[in-house]
Amino acid sequence: MGEGPDNEDSPGAGRRPPPGGTRTVGVPPVARPPEEPPDGTPLRGLSAAGGLAALRGLLARPLASYYLLLFSAGLLLLIGLTMVFSATSVEDFAKRGDATESLTKQAIFAVIGIVAFWVCQRLPVRTFQALAWPALGGAVVLLLLLNLLLVLGSLAGVDQVGPFSVYINWLYLGPIQLQPSELAKFALVLWGADVVARKGAKLGWWRELATPLFPVLGLLFVLVGYNDLGTMLCLLALVVGLLWAAGVRLRVFAVLGAVGLLGVGLLVAVASLGAGSSNAGDEDGDNFRLARLTNFIDPPPLETCKLHDCYQMLQARYAIEHGGWFGTGLGKSSLKWGSLPAAENDFIFVVIAEELGVVGCGVVVALFAVLAYTGLRIARRVTGRFRQLAAASATAWLIGQAMINIGGVIGLLPLTGVPLPFISDGGSALVVTLAAVGMLASFARAEPDAARALHARPPARWVRLVWAPLPPLPGRRRPGAPPAPRARAPRGRHEDDQAAPRAVRANRARRGSAEERRR
């Protein structure tokens, strides 16, 4: 009559429980849903874990690198156009009667830069490699012409030679104005990646590093650093990123660091002879580079320098303090009206701090962090040694320049006078920067997963014609072409002739080839 466990209609009727307790065989345990708090709100740990899982899912998509690059660069460009208008509108209206004059010029250069982005996005990798040597040669010629005209102007008072004229770092060819040092950055990315990629495993030898990499780098550093020390530091960051991605030994970085410090010291010293792009040292023959470095290491009292040496930094501090956490509001900065020099160029981050506060500065820094992550992600995931090295060096250039600018204007680094990428006013810098982003976009589409996804579901024909063609599928070789031999790099201490014991070197020399003995 009862409905207990011994009922015949119940499952397992007539079975005796095993000794030691009741046990169910073959029935999986039922997972219970997590209990929610009494107020009905979801658990915080699960929501955070779900958000992290969703983020990982988004980053695992094939074209995540491409869209992250477009997102970060596009927002930085939009912020730059907005802040250029905010920093220049009042002064343009007061002097010229047109509040949008500087914005119009910057927008024209932005359109040219977007065209350069579109062109570089469509180029295959072999075109970038073919342009490496011509781009470097053109940049060196322009830098030589710029420095020659500057020397003629300082010694003989010659302001113009034919259609060419110069002003500080800008070279004028009639109505065309450009900055050769900006072109040198992109040229060094292409040329350095091409040279290092061709050397391959030979980079373990000092002789291979010394030719032709170091002589060309020394020439570029002298041509750029003589007139613009800040841009030379950007080139140095580019080279460090290139060699780090190539896997060069730490001892090489130590030697390069010592040589770099010596070169910076010499460039600081030659500023007493008239070198440099600033006129700060013209009065009484002062060395403005040494003054900036001294003011950073040992700041003088404000009563003695607030009108001369540290005036610019003092106004920047006032602007940052005035902005606070949330800023005074877009367009409501007051120190940009003549009190803050170069508000639309080198110190535009200070205008962001005053108008948008710490929150606005944090958004800009976060976008640069996303750009840094995306560039390194592309360098890690893309195939081909040239693509990897070019992506890493271009990322080191853009992020290094942003760090030098932001660190200088907020007082964490000495002032150098380099623009903030994407945001500062300037045509040559913006066009070259967007061209480098276009190259990174081309590499992002060439990632193995991205290329397979684009070939699996190709866009419409008109989209491929207007925007970008399909990237090549990874792992394909020409029919009949043998696989490239893999050279073996010297990885250990005993594989390097300079570090091996004498007996090992003698045995190696006897059984090695003539080429190995010369090395």
What does it look like?
The protein contains 20 helices and four strands. By secondary structure, the protein is an all-alpha fold. It has one domain (63-457). Strands 1-2-3-4 form a four-stranded antiparallel β-sheet, with helices on one face. A hairpin with a 2-residue loop joins strand 3 and strand 4 (176-178). The chain is globular, with a radius of gyration of 30 Å. It starts with 43 loop residues before the first helix and ends with a helix. The model is unreliable at 1-27, 278-285, 478-501 and 513-519 (pLDDT under 50).
What amount of the residues lies in strands? under 5%
Helix content: 55-70%
Q: Given the C-alpha coordinates, what overall shape results?
A: globular
Task: State the helix count.
Answer: 20
Main sheet, how many strands, which sense, barrel? 4 strands, antiparallel
Class inferred from helices and paired strands = mainly alpha
Unreliable residue runs: 1-27, 278-285, 478-501, 513-519
The overall average pLDDT, rounded, is 79
User: Within the largest sheet, what's the order of strands?
Assistant: 1-2-3-4
- Number of self-contained structural domains: 1
Radius of gyration (Å): 30 Å
Query: Ends: how far apart?
Result: 99 Å
How many DSSP E strands?
A: 4
Region (Disordered): 1-43, 473-519
GO molecular function: lipid-linked peptidoglycan transporter activity; peptidoglycan glycosyltransferase activity
Membrane topology: Multi-pass membrane protein
Main location: membrane
